[in-house]
Amino acid sequence: MQNAAFRAAGRDAAYIALDILPGQLAQALEGLHEIGFAGLNVTLPHKEEAFTLVDSATPAARAAGAANTLRRAPRGWEGDATDGAGFLAWLDALGLRAPGARALLIGAGGAARSVAVALAQREPAEIRIVNRTPERAESLKALVLAAAPLARVATGAWAGATDREGDAAAGGGWDFIVRALASEEVVPEERRWWGGLKPGGSLLDLNYGARAGAARTEARSAGFRYEDGLGLLLEQGALSFEFWTGTKAPREAMRGALDSAEG
What would the DSSP string read from start to end of 101-159? Predict the structure, then answer.
């Protein structure tokens, strides 16, 4: 997608994948800056650590406490978080309204942080955050409220819920559920929250391609509207391109590359 964008824009640049193990990010960023990389995307599990390592950060990255897009600066890296704005653009492309909606966010990692903070700016009726680790859900709730003090944000138990909370999960009336999990498998603890999706609601999975296969199959067999994260990938990728280059992203070329890869 990004290489297609560079070609369409006539830029002499290449986008490559680098595997960086946990615990090696600081050393990697130092080395990549030294040898002249102009920009980077950072993905799971490095987004939150990347934020702590940048020399400066955009308001979006500071609000989310995570960075997924880095741009070379004289002394280090400038960090941005394009997942949140990309998510809102994806919602718009899908025709989903956030104002007044009840949204369930499953997951509390780097992408979920950006998504939750951005979503709160659209004034939904409620954002409920569910995560395997309750402390991370509470931490994300606090982060959202720091950025949007008037937002209605709650957390829910991943497992071992009371009967009352189990009923709330099943009858949640969610307009849409955001699945911000690295896991491809849909486990029973997650599946019970899906039961709260109201008729006509949407399940938005941040995974895409083969990683979205299990959730896609299960959601569609249950009759839910399911969207994988390819649309989000396009929108956040276009914003990354614009952060790196200062020019408008060639979205049609980028979309064409994604369509070809999926085909």
Answer: -EEEEE--SHHHHHHHHHHHTT--SEEEEEESSHHHHHHHHHHHHHH-TT--EEEEESS
